[in-house]
């Protein structure tokens, strides 16, 4: 479709879609920063700021949901102008768009794919570190609440829930 004549409305729709995709890329970059900041907090054991870090991540995610809705709205006129269904994926919109928009939209798609893959890896790493930190804290607390030399895990790898000694008086 690269040699087709494009009217002003189609150009405006393509421009709006591209702007929306840039906004999503900026938010993905901000989310990457927030997750990397959280990773530093986790690695350094600086739990004081974890609540704030989590709230900031949640705010970026809320902005992303809104930007994604706006992107879907912006894609509608583009799909209509190109004769595509409203739920057409970005790869097919890019393939059907006239030059230079086909390349611009294709580059957006590649950048968004790379950013989401990086975020998935970073998010998984943070989750794993938080889980490991949680287990370490639990094991430390269990040492205070179990008899010395008592086993912490069963043969199947499950934690034993046996309590014989307590750090604090459990009776009121």
Care to describe what's here?
This protein has 172 residues and is mostly helical. The chain has four helices and no strands. Helix 1 packs antiparallel against helix 2 and helix 1 runs parallel beside helix 4 (101-145). The mean pLDDT is 85.
Features of the shown structure:
172 residues, mainly alpha
SSE inventory with pairings:
Blueprint (H helix, E strand, L loop, with lengths): L7 H37 L5 H33 L7 H7 L4 H45 L27
Summarize the entry for a quick read.
Helix content is 71%, strand content 0%. By secondary structure, the chain is mainly alpha-helical. Helix 1 runs antiparallel to helix 2.
User: How many helices does DSSP assign?
Assistant: 4
The biggest sheet, with number of strands, parallel, antiparallel or mixed sense and barrel status, is:
none
Mean of residue pLDDT?
A: 85
The end-to-end span amounts to 78 Å
The percentage of residues in β strands lies in: under 5%
Low-confidence stretches: none
Order of helices and strands: HHHH
- Level of helix content? over 70%
Structural class: mainly alpha
Q: What's the overall geometry?
A: elongated
Spatial extent as radius of gyration: 25 Å
Beta-strand segment tally = 0
């Amino acid at each position: 479709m690269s040699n087709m004549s494009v009217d002003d409305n189609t150009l405006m729709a393509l421009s709006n879609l591209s702007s929306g995709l840039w906004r999503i890329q900026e938010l993905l970059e901000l989310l990457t920063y927030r997750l990397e900041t959280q990773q530093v907090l986790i690695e350094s054991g600086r739990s004081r700021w974890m609540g704030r870090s989590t709230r900031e991540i949640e705010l970026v995610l809320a902005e992303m949901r809104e930007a994604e809705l706006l992107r879907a709205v912006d894609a509608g006129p583009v799909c209509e102008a190109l004769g595509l269904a409203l739920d057409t994926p970005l790869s097919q919109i890019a393939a059907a768009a006239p030059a230079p928009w086909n390349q611009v939209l294709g580059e957006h798609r590649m950048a968004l794919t790379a950013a989401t893959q990086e975020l998935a890896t970073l998010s998984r790493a943070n989750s794993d570190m938080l889980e490991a930190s949680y287990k370490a804290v639990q094991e430390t607390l269990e040492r205070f609440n179990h008899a010395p030399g008592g086993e912490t895990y069963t043969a199947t790898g499950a934690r034993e829930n046996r309590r014989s000694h307590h750090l604090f008086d459990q009776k009121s």
